[in-house]
Amino acid sequence: MTTHFLSVEGLKKAYPGTTTPVFENIHFGIDKGEFVCIIGHSGCGKTTILNVLAGLEEASAGGVIMDGREVAGPSLDRGVVFQSHALMPWMSVLANVAFAVKSKWPDWSKAKIAEHSTRYLEMVGLGHAIHKKPAELSGGMKQRVGIARAFAIEPKMLLLDEPFGALDALTRGTIQDELLKIVQATHQTVFMITHDVDEAILLADKVILMSNGPLAKIAEIVEITMPRDRTRSEMHHDPQFYRIRNHLVDFLVNRSKGYAGSDAALLHDAKHPPVVRPGLASDEPPPSDNSRPILKQVVNQ
Amino acid sequence: MFSKQALKAGLISLLLFLAFIGAWSLATHQKEGPAASGADAEYAALMGKGAEKTSGFPPPAKVGEAFVTYLSDPFYDKGPNDKGIGIQLAHSLGRVGLGFFLAVVVALPLGFVIGQSPLLFQAFNPFIQILKPISPLAWMPLALYSLKDSDVSGIFVIFICSLWPMLINTAFGVAAVRRDWINVARTLEVAPLRKAFLVILPAAAPTILTGMRISMGIAWLVIVAAEMLVGGTGIGYFVWNEWNNLALPNVIFAVVMIGLVGMLLDQLFGLLQKAVTYRE
Ligand SMILES: Nc1ncnc2c1ncn2[C@@H]1O[C@H](COP(=O)(O)OP(=O)(O)OP(=O)(O)O)[C@@H](O)[C@H]1O
Ligand SMILES: [Mg+2]
Predict the structure, then answer these.
(1) Which of A104, A73, A40 is nearest to A260 (CA)?
(2) What pLDDT does A174 receive?
(3) Is the pLDDT of residue B44 over 80?
(4) How far apart are CA B260 and CA B270, in angstroms?
(5) Which of A55, A264, A278, B119 could be a cystine partner for A73, CB 3.0 to 4.6 Å?
(6) If you measure from the C-alpha of residue B280 to the centroid of ligand 2, how many angstroms do you get, rounded to a whole number?
């Protein structure tokens, strides 16, 4: 019935020993080659959703179908970049990536594995550091190794859990640019959690807005209508940028609480959350509190 | 800065050593003659040998002589009661090595299984808690009765005392492997054995090696006592035998050798520990 590459249907998760589910009745779809970000306040269940998509966590109800098959357990089809980079400290950078490559292609020769791994490390700008141990790298470099490891197995889909959450703004920007380049070149399908509104606008084709938990819902799906060839330095010249940005920030600051409780279920159809294109709504009167200047906002700090 | 301090420390160590030898020399010098108590003399007469060695606590020079005699020919073998110190130590190290190795063979796989299953961890825990504090020598009668061989019993005692620290540390080390690393292995669909050897083992290795180091320390403590009990060969038997001969300089020599070998074993494990420790 659905034509999405990945579809999430009626997902619910209640951790054992708890009464109220973290979220329930979650529906959304991701198309092939699409970059989807999910934004929501801390504790609403983003990581839980990602873990269910990865197959690391079991859903209490509902399911995930990717490429026509039900997700049941972790798989090499889905590469995961963990928030804490999760590199093995006893292995060199190259060995970390090679470990993943060998898992995917066990029959490859050592030389071929090394060559393939090195290529992906060069892609994230770490060609010079392949023989270092993770402990000798900066936080940003570690995160890049994690990204190279996930890309190197050439998964059908990438799942990123706040990959840049622990980085300073400058490093974050550089790696965002790199990720953007790689994704544009490879047309990788990506699902990414972020707390950074600008990051979402830069990278995503659509942004899923999650309301506060418990009983979190998908409040809205925001389509980023700006042209795909955006760059970090140029995108704020696009008049769409601030409209989208204000919409997202307004949601996080004012509207995300309004969905808690079952009464909110009456207001919108969980199976078809509203899809909005704030970037195109040219002369919408701005909400009152948008008149004050909005600084770069990273929620959840 | 560091080397300067090391130099100073070395100098102080040397002074302490000289002061100790000096005090010892002084103390034994005064006691010579009258110190040979009646009981000692009687005992010496009873034993009929080693009489000239019973004149009180030996002075450093006598002990030094023992060092020279034994170290100049460590590997001679003149019958069951007269072997070189090298041969005796080799016997002890052989028993310790074998018992320790058997303990590794049991503790590592078992610790792996227990560490990965909270259920088994809980199920095994009461037994480990009860068995752990038992003095390994308390097993000796049971071992001698059921194994019927003093050599095998010695090895068993080493096995049993090495087992617990290794088992406990392996289980804890495996249980404490970071969830993230396990999840990486899961998302990469790594086969169980490959995961065990390439992810869990290296991750838990520092904890496991700590357990091994403790085990080896205990094993070396226990072997001396065990060999005193079962006799035959080994450094513990050597100590006991020389005590029966009332050859105190030889006993002191053996005590120092026990300390030296113990230190070397500990340092060996310290090196191994360093080799598997990773910085995060
Ligand atoms: N293993 C667990 N057992 C019980 N409750 C859990 C567990 N993991 C998460 N939770 C709960 O589920 C809710 C959602 O957690 P989750 O980690 O998915 O949030 P998140 O949206 O990723 O938050 P953040 O933005 O801070 O990372 C939280 O309330 C958390 O307390
Ligand atoms: Mg999270």
Answers:
(1) A40
(2) 83
(3) no
(4) 15
(5) A55
(6) 22
Interface predicted TM-score (ipTM) of this complex, two decimals: 0.84
Between B195 and B39, whose confidence is greater?
Answer: B195
The count of structural domains within chain A is: 1
Q: Among A124-133, B28-37, B126-135, which stretch is predicted with the lowest mean pLDDT? A: B28-37
The Cα–Cα gap between B50 and B44 comes to 7
Domain assignment of residue A109, yes or no: no
Q: Which residue of B has its CA nearest to A85?
A: B180
pLDDT per residue over A193-205, tens digit each? 998 899 999 999 9
Residues of chain A with pLDDT under 70: 1-2, 260-268, 282-301
Residues, CB-to-ion distance under 5 Å, ligand 2:
A 47
All structural domains of chain B, each given as residue ranges with its CATH number in brackets, are: 60-276 (1.10.3720.10)
Chain A CB within 8 Å of residue B181 CB:
yes
Q: Is residue A275 part of a domain?
A: yes
Tokens of A144: 């890049």
Residue A296, in any domain of the structure: no
Nearest CA in chain B to A142: B280
- Output A138-142 pairs: Cβ under 8 A, ≥24 positions apart: A138/A171, A139/A85, A139/A166, A139/A167, A139/A171, A140/A167, A140/A171, A140/A172, A140/A174, A140/A175, A142/A85, A142/A87
Q: What average pLDDT does this structure show over B170-176?
A: 95
Q: Which residues of A touch B197 (CB under 8 A)?
A: none
What distance in Å separates residue B194's CA from the closest CA in chain A? 10
CATH number at residue A37: 3.40.50.300
Please tell me the predicted confidence (pLDDT) of residue A292. 41
Question: In chain B, which among 261-280 make CB contacts under 8 A with chain A?
Answer: 276, 278-280
**pTM (2 d.p.):** 0.83
Pocket lined around ligand 1, Cβ cut-off 6 Å? A 15, 22, 40, 42-48, 213, 300
Range of the domain at A251: 6-77+155-291
> Which atom of ligand 1 is least distant from the CA of A13?
12
Query: Measured in angstroms, how far is the CA atom of residue A223 from the centroid of ligand 2?
Result: 23
pLDDT in tens, A48-81: 999 999 999 999 999 999 998 999 999 999 999 9
Of B213, B231, B212, B209, give the one whose Cα is nearest residue B92: B231
